Amino acid sequence: MNHTIDLQNACDGQKLPPLELFQQWVNAALTEVTEKEFELTIRLVNIDESQQLNKQYRQQDKPTNVLSFPFEVPTGIELNLLGDLVICAQVVEQETKAQNKASFNHWAHMVIHGCLHLLGYDHINDTDAIEMETLEVKILAKLSIANPYEM
User: Fold this and answer.
1) Which residues pair with 39 in a beta bridge?
2) Cβ atoms < 10 Å from Cβ of 75
3) 64 with 91: CB under 8 angstroms?
4) Partners of 41 in the beta sheet?
5) Could you tell me the pTM of the whole model?
6) Average pLDDT taken over every residue of the chain
7) Which CATH number is 4-150 given?
8) How far, in Å, CA of 143 to CA of 87, rounded?
9) pLDDT-derived band of residue 15, with 50, 70 and 90 as boundaries?
10) CA-based nearest residue to 145, from 72, 57, 137
11) Is residue 71 exposed (0-12), middle (13-18) or buried (19+ Cβ within 10 Å)?
């Protein structure tokens, strides 16, 4: 299944993964959990935009790696729009260096993590966190990417 991605690049000077990798990661995440075909937007942003959105929507005045904004389809309307992921390229790259991870492997994890949030998964409590992390690890393994929680 090939989900539709609108990739928006609002940051510059970053070594970003190509659209083909984003497509591979989204497909891996969504097809593991659902048979529905979806559309989503992935917006790559700088620190300022990430911090502004994180403050506005999560009341946290700092940039973050990925924000997920699920689309709530109005009753009676049939749309396959899943929502938006906002990924801060600079935060992802900072984490890559700090955690000594391969750059595109960490990007894959962030995209998969965000997609699972769009599908309703969360990690607010321990039980939900274990379920979500287990699913992330399973999807990443299918992409030959090591468990990011064991590094």
Assistant:
1) 4, 81
2) 5
3) yes
4) 6, 84
5) 0.94
6) 94
7) 3.40.390.30
8) 20
9) confident
10) 137
11) middle
